[in-house]
Amino acid sequence: MPGEPRETSRNGVDRSREALKESHRPGWLTSRPARALVCAAGLLLGWVSIRLGLRWALVRFFRVPHVHSGATPAAMGLEAEDVTISAPGGRLRAWFIPARAAGPQPVALVLHGWSGSASSMLPVAPPLHAAGFHVLLLDAQGHGRSDDSDSGSSSMPGFAENVERACRWLRSNPRVEAEGIVLVGHSVGAGACLLAAARDPRIAAVVSISSMANAATYMGQAMRRHGVPAIAISLVLREIERAIGMRFPEFAPIATIAHLHMPVLLIHGAIDSVIPLADAQALHRAAPPGTDLLVVADADHGDIDRFLAVAPAVTDFLRRAVQREEPAAPPVSAHRPSPQRGE
Asked: What is the model's pTM?
């Protein structure tokens, strides 16, 4: 038929036009809701990746090289018992140096700082022991001879939990005066002792050596010095809180010290290159009335031997604390510097 090819041709053109329209019609994956969903999924995946990356980095950052203890109490002429205390994920190790006197006696629980060990605090043991105290030199988890924690990382609240477990062990020891436990801590260990004392009103006294005022401020300043952007610092600090399970304001020494009702003594090196003296002065302002600050003129952060210059004032302070005596006029104060110990 003469008209058939024309009709066939027209039908072919129509089908081609329909196919062309179909090819340009938005599919599900190119629709606006789908694009929004894909974008949201991408953002979520990116955020999860960032969180996982931050967690991985923080675990590596908080994992302290497990440096085992060096010298022992025998090197200081002291006889000590090797002590094991149970803790989540492993054991706490410590040296218990019994007091000379018989019967229940007060005890000084001594805790080192970050990446330290019981060995690093050995110089403080002889004057404490000579003053009539039992001395417990504790290795925090992940430090010295103690096992690692479950998470494999360390923190100030983690140190405080170690102190609390050691206090429970001490109170179960019939040789220890249960109400005569005093805490002596250095650096992060000092902050941990302040936190533990804020949660345990039975602690008789706290001696804080070289404590920072606020861990978040300290870490933020350290990251800024390395050029980390402010938004990244905020993310890192929030992730640290999640990893620790506690917010910085809850365990900041400048916050916990304000809640203490037992005597507190602050000690700091005037030339501390890690934690500035300003932190100790801020703690002193926030501390309970009567708190003294002893400033050791020639001591840097880790100079434990140099802090022995104030040992007589420390032992006098602790004896009065366990005997519930009124403090004597402070031999040295942040407001009354001496040529040997001043700001």
From this structure: 0.77
